[in-house]
Amino acid sequence: MFIPIFFILSFLFSSTNAADFCVGDLNGPVGPAGYSCKKTVTVNDFVYSGLAATGNTSNLIKAAVTPAFSAQFPGVNGLGISIARLDLAVGKTQSLAFVSFSSPDPGLQILDFALFANDLPTDIIEETTFLDAAQIKKLKGVLGGTG
């Protein structure tokens, strides 16, 4: 009777140790597995209120992305996850989306800039997007692209 109870208690205590998480030390280097672990962890490492604030959508693309990656939210370091808030100024009301990623730092690629703020030839963009050359040149003019 003593051995099964001891086994259960030791299993419970061993599965709740501090090695189950690795709060990112934002002052240290970033490696392939993320930030190195902080030695002293506080409750603030697990609280992030940045997603509560509306992003500034008064820019050219009328959108704002607020990330909650390891650099902003050290508590998700090493978990392989992240989230971001997307604010869009669409029509008469603002739109809001929360997107989650199975990557700690997925990066961001805005298609408008990828297509129209570069030197990619207009005919290639025309075939890819089904936009006509006049529309493409107008978008390149607004976003600074050539070609």
From TrEMBL:
Keyword entries, A-Z: Signal
Keyword Ubl conjugation: no
Signal peptide, first to last residue: 1-18
SUPFAM superfamilies: RmlC-like cupins
Family matches, as InterPro entries: RmlC-like_jellyroll, RmlC_Cupin_sf
Domain of life: Eukaryota
Name the UniProt record assigns to this protein: Germin-like protein
Native organism: Gossypium hirsutum
